[in-house]
Amino acid sequence: MEFNIQRQGRKWSRAEIEQKYHDLCPEKIELIEGKMFWSDEQRLNMLALLLENVGDGRRREIGRPRTLEAGH
C-alpha cells in the first residue's frame, strides 16, 4: 500500500476510505502482550494512516524532540 503523508494533515477521498480504512484497519484495537494490534505490519499501517490525517508536521510534537532528531 502506498501512503500519501504530507506536512499538513488531510481528509481521505471516498476512494481512499474504501481502500485504506476498510482494507487496512482492524475491526477493533486489541492489546496483545503489551502491544497494540497483532503485528508490526498492522502497527505501521495504523501509524501511516494517522499521519496522513494529522500530517507529518505534527509528528514532532510527540516524544522528546532531541531524541527523535538523534534517531533514537
Question: In a few lines, what is going on in this structure?
Answer:
The protein has helices at 14-24, 40-54, 65-70, and strands spanning 31-32, 35-36. With 72 residues, the protein is mainly alpha-helical.
Shape category: flat
> What is the straight-line distance between the termini?
26 Å
Instruction: Compute the number of helices.
Output: 3
Work out the strand percent.
5-15%
Taking all residues together, what is the mean pLDDT? 85
Please indicate the count of domains: 1
- Give the ordered list of helices and strands: HEEHH
Helix content: 40-55%
Please list the strands of the largest sheet in the order they lie side by side.
1-2
Main beta sheet strand tally, sense and closure: 2 strands, antiparallel
Radius of gyration: 14 Å
Keywords:
72 residues; mainly alpha; two-stranded antiparallel sheet; 6% strand; flat
Write up this protein.
The protein has 72 residues and is mainly alpha-helical. The protein is 44% helix and 6% strand. The protein has helices at residues 14-24, 40-54, 65-70, and strands at 31-32, 35-36. A two-stranded antiparallel ribbon has the order 1-2. The longest helix is centred in the middle third of the chain and has 15 residues, at 40-54. The radius of gyration is 14 Å and the shape is flat. The model has no long low-confidence stretch (mean pLDDT 85).
